[in-house]
Amino acid sequence: MHLSDKMLSIDRQLHPRWLFPASSDSGPLGTVAAGYLLPVIVVLPVLCGLLVFAAERAGWLATPGALLISVAAGVAGTSTATLLVARWLNRVATSRDATENTQAEAEIARGHALFEGLFEYAPDAVIAVDMEGCVRLVNRQAEELFGYSKQELLGLPVETLLPDRARPSHIALRERYTASPDRRPRRDDVIGLRKDGAEFPAAVALGPINLSSGMLVLASVRDVSEERQDKDTIQRLKADLSRNADELKTVNDELKSFSYSVSHDLRAPLRSMVGYSTIILEDFDDALPPEAKGHLGRIIAATNKMGELIDGLLALSRIIRRDMVRQNVDLSVLAEEALQHLRAGTPARDVSIRVAEKLRVVGDRQLLQIAVTNLVDNAWKFTRHTAHPKIEVGVAIEKGQPVYFVRDNGVGFDMKYADKLFGAFQKLHGERDYEGPGIGLATAHRVILRHGGALWATAEPGQGATFYFTLPQPVEGGDE
Predict the structure, then answer these.
(1) pLDDT digits (tens, 9 = 90+) for 198-225
(2) What's the predicted TM-score (pTM) here?
(3) What CATH homologous superfamily does 325-469 map to?
(4) I want to staple 31 with a disulfide (CB 3.0 to 4.6 A). Which of 27, 104, 400, 430 is the partner?
(5) Which of the following CATH numbers is that of domain 122-223: 3.40.50.1980, 3.30.465.60, 3.30.450.20, 3.60.15.10?
């Protein structure tokens, strides 16, 4: 509480209002002080005179002249003191009022600057419209969006920013809004009109602001052309995805039917060809010329080859159709199991093998076993004619991500044929030296792709090959 306020509070307690009707709680401090000091100026001399008179009766003052002089001195001193105090109080009040006015003006200026900044640099176009529908304020974004300058926009009917067909309905909407103004959420069904006549889809939100001069309606306007395009693109992609899903289901159904036919309908003729050819060789061996025996042998070999190809096709189809059960898997264990099986099949071979520990990934264990087995088997096969064969299974870090590999120092291949590596029944080396249907790498490739990874290779003829692949990483605390 200011000092002057405390003084007024105390004075009200000491002086009843009926005695000093000139006092007031309103107005500058100097005016209030004058209302209190004026009665003092009048009453105090009278009291002084009464005191002097009493003193004279008592014999304290010797002559009437002394009496007058005393009264005059008291009145003059009291009046002078009263006027000096009043002037001092008025100066204090005037200074306080000026300081408060300056602070209030500074606060108002800061508020105006904040509003202007928010209005001018708002991310959307903002237009202020009065009750008659005329534009009163616009920001820079509004100028850029509609193609008008600020001077051109001010005073225009807001319907100028809409196509002709939308203006009558907008006038009716505006009149209903001004009758009951409130904050309206964003609407995306508005069409805006630029100065050059181009139309664009717009989203508009409304909000009223009350000023001393009347109410304005703030409209926030955003061009949603890109949003519309994105929505259309998303809808189109969803439709394509749904259609592709239907087509994929159809293909899977056909693949199941094909697999059944391969398993049953094609194998029966093959078994017959092999069976009858074998019977002829066994029962008519003495009667057959060597040339005929050679032909029958080739028939049996080709039929067995066809059986291997059929087995490869069935394996691929099962990989594509098989439901995946994801879990944490240790590739090191899978590689050791595959290599142990290969050692048991060809115990005479001396191959230097190195398998890194704890190569943990996430995936379907059975499918990953197929992929790792095929990659290791590929390295084992193509180091057959190497003097000191080496096979390594490990991991490297590239761009912060683990990349697993199976490396050998075998025959290698020319990189210009690398695009044929993962095709079904594609072979880069002769059948005579390296047997097999050519389905192993294609199968491994399908497995890695199903897990969301990638498989690629680098090699040089006579220097070996390295097959790299990526797989999802395990979740900490998951089961292995």
Answers:
(1) 999 999 988 888 877 788 888 889 998 8
(2) 0.46
(3) Histidine kinase-like ATPase, C-terminal domain (3.30.565.10)
(4) 27
(5) 3.30.450.20
